[in-house]
TrEMBL record:
The name this protein goes by in its record: VWA domain-containing protein
Keyword Lipid metabolism attributed: no
Family matches, as SMART domains: VWA
Transmembrane stretches, start-end: 6-27, 56-76, 305-327
Organism: Stygiobacter electus
Leader sequence segment: none
Amino acid sequence: MLGDVTFAYPWAFILLVFVAVLAYWYWKNKNTITANFNFSSLQFFGKVPITLKEKLIHLPAILTLIGLVFLIIAAARPQSFSSGENIYTEGIDIAMVLDISGSMLAEDFKPNRLEAAKKVTEEFINGRTVDQIGLVIFSGDSFTQCPLTIDYSVLKNLLREIKMGMIEDGTAIGNAIANGVNRLKDSKAKSKVMILLTDGVNNAGQIDPITAAQIAAKFGIRIYSIGIGTMGEAPYPFQTPFGIRYQMVPVEIDENLLKQISAITGGKYFRATNNKKLAQIYNEIDKMEKTRVEVTSYRHAKELYFWWAFLGMSLILSQVIISKTYLKRIP
C-alpha cells in the first residue's frame, strides 16, 4: 500500500523483473543494436557535432521500458480509498410519513407547516448517501408517494409535488403508520426507520394508531414521531369572498399518542415549534441513525488503473511513431 493507494493484484509486480532483464539486455547490447560503420581513422569525425538524432537514439527503448512499467502498475490494479468516507455496514431503510391535512397550511411556520416540513425533509434526504428512502403522505387516508428508492432526484421531485388537497381531509395517523410498515416490512436492511410528522389528532382511518405501532414494532421498525405546531394558537389562512383572511386557531397535537407510538417501537418523540427547531430535530434524527450503523472505512475503492494503462500505451505508441519517423533507421 502507498499512502491511500493499494493494489488489488500486487503479484503483478513480479513482471518488473522481466522489464529489468530487458533493460539489462539492451544496455549490454546497445552498441550492436545501433548501426555501425567501419572507418580506417576517426580523425575526420573529431570536430563533427553530435546531432539531436544521435542524442535521442536510445529514446524509443526508454519509452518502451517506462511504458511496460506503467502497464504492469495498471495490471496490479491500483485503487484509491477516500479517507474518512462514511460506509454503512448494515444499511438503513427510511419511510418519511408526512401529514398533508388542511391544518398543515397554518403559518406559525414560514411559509407554512407543510412547506417547512417539505424543506427539512429534502435537506434530510440530501444528507444521506446510500440509504433507501420512501415517502408516504396522509390526511383522511394514506398512500405512497414514492416507494423505497436510492434515486434521490426522483424522490425529491415527488416530494416537491406534494400539496394539500391530494387526499380527503382528516388525520389518519393509524393508516399512515400501516402504510409505512408496508413499505418497510419486506426490507432486508437491519435498520428500519419511520419518521412520522403530524400536526393534529387522529380522527380518521380504519386502523388504530397504537395497533399500527405494535405491528411496526414486530417488524423491527423504529418510529420517530414529530409534532409540528407552535404552542397555543396559530394563524390560519381562510379563503373568503374578499380574499385571504387570517384567523387564530388552536394548535391541537396528540402528544401523548405520539409519545406512545415512539415508545412502543423504540423511537423518540419530538416537538417542533418553529422552523429552526424542526430543522434541529431532523438533524438529531439524522445523527442518531448514522451513529447506529455508520463506520469510518477505507474499503470503498476508486479504480485508478485506467490512467496507468493509458500512459503505458501512450508511451509505447509514441516510441513506435518516433522510431518510424524521426528516428527511422537506415536499412
